[in-house]
Amino acid sequence: MRINDLESWLERLWNGDKRAAAKLISQVEDNLGRIDIMGQILPRTGQRMIMGITGPPGAGKSSLVEAITQLYRNQKDKVGIVAVDPSSPYSGGAILGDRIRMQSHGTDPGVFIRSMGTRGHLGGVARSTVNVLRILEAAGYQRLILETVGVGQSELEIMELADTIIVVLNPGTGDGIQAIKAGIMEIADIFVVNKADLPGAERLKNDIEMVLDLNGERSWRAPVVMTSILDQSGLNELHDQIAVHQNYLVKSGKNLERQRKAFNQEVWSHWEEIARQTFEKAWESLINTRDDLDRKNPYQLAEEIWTSIF
């Protein structure tokens, strides 16, 4: 993208143009001028908190995101949603396509929905996710929502990106025990027992409360909210609890602590990407050298490549 073109797209972004947001997101995802684009966008970001929604597959995360989005739209807030899905092993694109499940907001000019594939990156979060959220913030979206693929233990990486983390669980599916095993009990700022109209919802809530009691005293105790998309119950309570937690973050200074952790992760991720690209170039230069590839000692070969690079 040429400098003049970039300035034009950025100007449109500052004015809230959805097409400009989509264009710049695509450029960043494809690593086309990403450093230049983000260099312009970063000074305009960092003021909005990110809400992360995670949990096992089938917990109703997308339906809950849709319901929360409607509450924010009722307040006239613009909502930016990034839904990270598993990637197709062939195209690299997102398989589930959350925009299909959020049809009620698909044509809403105040809602931007982006489905992203994990592209083989563990942690349930695509590498460029944080940049996409910043682009949406720069475009004037006051509410930023990150929904991740429910993959259990590797879901923990969302901690480094989100300010308020909501863990969504279901009754009657063993989610309570699985959540304890997966470790996501420890990252939740708010628990949601979704599909609370189903049998076993109250028992699941009690199980979560019991685990929270065992964790001892903490500066923030995660509330457990029971919701049902079917009868629209508990949604206003969830909305209020999100606001309470974000106020707590500001008053306690925890928001700054989380921002520092997110910044550290971004730096490490960038270093990792540079190292991988550098190694791939060095590897390509050896791919036709049969003698090297026939060696039985990969450690020695790795050391030689490292030495040749640095």
Task: Please provide a brief summary of the model.
This protein has 310 residues and is an alpha/beta fold.
Structural account:
This protein has 310 residues and is an alpha/beta fold. It has 3 domains: 44 residues; 207 residues, P-loop containing nucleotide triphosphate hydrolases (Rossmann fold); 47 residues, no CATH class. Helix content is 48%, strand content 12%. It is built from 12 helices and 7 strands. Strands 3-2-4-1-5-6-7 form a 7-stranded parallel sheet, with helices on both faces. α1 crosses α2 and α4 packs across α9. It is globular, with a radius of gyration of 21 Å. It starts with a helix and ends with a helix. About 4% of the residues have low confidence.
Query: What sequence of helices (H) and strands (E) makes up the elements?
Result: HHHEHEHEHEEHEHEHHHH
Q: How big is the Rg?
A: 21 Å
Structural class of the secondary structure composition? alpha/beta
Q: Which range does the strand content fall in?
A: 5-15%
Instruction: Give the CATH superfamily of the largest domain.
Output: P-loop containing nucleotide triphosphate hydrolases
CATH class division of the largest domain? Alpha Beta
Q: Assign an overall shape.
A: globular
What is the domain total for the residues?
Answer: 3
CATH hierarchy: architecture of the largest domain: 3-Layer(aba) Sandwich
Give a count of the beta strands, DSSP E runs of length 2 or more: 7
The low-confidence runs, each spanning 5 or more residues with pLDDT under 50, are 88-99
* Sheet with most strands: strand arrangement: 3-2-4-1-5-6-7
Rounded mean pLDDT is: 82
Please outline the major beta sheet.
Answer: 7 strands, parallel
CATH topology description of the largest domain: Rossmann fold
